[in-house]
TrEMBL record:
Cellular component aspect of the GO annotation: membrane
Cofactor(s) this protein requires: [4Fe-4S] cluster; [2Fe-2S] cluster
Family statement: In the C-terminal section; belongs to the prokaryotic molybdopterin-containing oxidoreductase family.
Top-rank lineage group of the source organism: Bacteria
The protein, known as: Putative formate dehydrogenase alpha subunit
Shown chain mapped onto the complete sequence: 244 to 927 of 929
GO process annotations (BP): ATP synthesis coupled electron transport; formate metabolic process
Residue ranges constituting the 4Fe-4S Mo/W bis-MGD-type domain according to the UniProt record: 6-61
The entry's keywords: 2Fe-2S, 4Fe-4S, Iron, Iron-sulfur, Metal-binding, Oxidoreductase, Repeat
Gene Ontology molecular function, alphabetical: 2 iron, 2 sulfur cluster binding; 4 iron, 4 sulfur cluster binding; formate dehydrogenase (NAD+) activity; metal ion binding; molybdopterin cofactor binding; NADH dehydrogenase (ubiquinone) activity; NADH dehydrogenase activity
Protein source organism: Mobilicoccus pelagius NBRC 104925
Amino acid sequence: YRIREVETVSTTCPHCGTGCQIDLRVKDNRIVDAVGGDGPVNHGLLCGKGRSGSIDFVHSPDRIRTPLIKNKETGEFEEATWDEALDLVAREFTRLRDTYGPQTLAGFACSRSPNEDIYLTQKFVRTCLRTNNVDNCARVCHSASVAGLAMTLGSGAMTNPIADITGDVDVIMLVGSNPEEAHPVIGMQIRQAVQRGARLVVVDPREIDLCKDADLHLRVRPGTNVAFANGLLHVMIAEDLVDHAFIAERTEGFEAMKDLVADYTPERVGEICHVDPDMLREAARLYAGAEKAPIVYCLGVTEHSSGTEGVMSLSNLALATGKLGRPGCGINPLRGQNNVQGGCDMGAQPGDLPGYQKVAADGVVEKFEQAWGVDLNHEPGIMATDILAMSARGEMKALFSYGEDPVRTDPDTAHVVKAMENLEFFAIIELFMTDTATYADVVLPGLSFAEKTGTFTNTERRVQMVRQAVIPEPGMRPETEVLADLMRRMGYPQPTLTPAQIMDEIASVTPSFGGISHERIEREGGLQWPCPSADHPGTPILHVGSFTRGLGRFFPAEYRPSAETPDADYPFILMTGRMLYHYNNGTMTMRAPGLAEISGSSYIELNVDDAARLGIPDGGRVAVSSRRGRIETTARVGTRVSQGETWMPFHFADGAVNELTNAALDEYARIPEYKVCAVHVEPV
Ligand code: SF4
């Protein structure tokens, strides 16, 4: 790693999955400013997180700067050399693997790290821990998209490019997504599209700001997405708004789908979802009647115990109306973390090797055994949420985590703490001493996005460069070097490769990345996979002509209520979400003084009528409790949420909302139900 003598370094934003290009101004090895770069998505735009939140954390005095080993006697961390720390990690993982078996070990990859780091993390888990128990944070955000879109279309990714769905379109169907806060540059572009004349249908329990410009706001009750989508399809079929030729030529399973939605009359769905049946009819007509109408969605669809079925239900709408494989349409999940797309693409999934090559498919593991020169485990691994559940039961012995903070970010904190405490050995790579890192036996210092080189893949499958802007402090090492060192200490002959060489290895074993290299990305400014060969231009729109799985498949799903619904003891529904000023657990954005000043502590949104009944004023302190925990926070009283519903941001340590949330899991993707749990609220 050598820093180029430049004052401006163009790189990719380390926050959300939009993938904005950002120009870092560097002076005396410090980032002094960040401005919007001319990227294919942002065209010079940046939000506050990219502008302010990308600087201060890099140089924060709180950074972990040296390996740390926990003293078993005192429970305190003590500074160690890299040799001491890596020897201990290698020794303990080897001992526990050989004592209890590889299936009692697991690894989490970091979806904020570059593709090259993620690839090497999953390679470490598979070759050295000898298990496929490797996962990434998509498990708790968009695993339902990966599963649901793969089952219906064949590829678990956004079908169309961002410029396409925010450009010259007729109708935008925005479901369970608040892009002006969670993906602000895409949010701005959607607003601009509406100002140019696109019609907007918002499907969301909350009154997000885009509702003011929407033609329709269907304020569905949380947890009723499947019923909503079935109701829309019922109307489309009843009013003959579907595309018969597309259904006949390119899909399968329509008759079973038609039978299922026959019972989802607008009146019945109106009762389930608490919406006006005529608004359902109007939404169906608007969407089905438009030539260009993308479905754009986010965690309001996925983070349910029926999350995968929610995704597939949206897919059914696009299949029925032929809105796939062409510009301005498709079904488009907005991915949360900067490189959570890469987390999945690079094989940090228990069932998939890089490029979604299935562990269970004939010949796939054998191919990687040949490429990597080692025997591999042939059993699909365990998903992250099940890994934590196993650990809580005492069945998981050791965990390697790179940049994940499940104690703060996974549901039901008490359950996660128990999982952490039960581990016999836990090693973590981190920038800061997070809630999760405090449970580790060994903490290894990580490098920020500004201190290393690699690639991030944004929500539209575009692989873009991450360029080193500042030289790390003495003694800090890039994770690719650390992982290779650790692999050698565990007996696997992994050479220390440059990030460009690692990408070449990725291309050699991953057909969808076969034509991607750093040299090409530098020259062409980003490539959208699949890009199978050096002369392939990349694929902006998926499923043109045929679906990745051949025929698109309708998936009939019945509506099921959420795992926990309100009752006399816990009468409110609690939803959670991201806000404009912060990013996930806040380790980066909370260190930006401007952002922390604007928004420094948690709050709960309450409906004005509920607040009046409970005697809670705007700004009053409240206690919020669920069957799993109790927190105190500040009330924001208004009409953003409906009566009987509440909402909290998930970023904060004070009033940490995951003390309350429910770890009920979706059947297919094992994603937790962050978006619906039952709570009690009272003034304090
Ligand atoms: Fe960064 Fe996302 Fe903001 Fe763009 S929209 S600057 S990628 S946080």
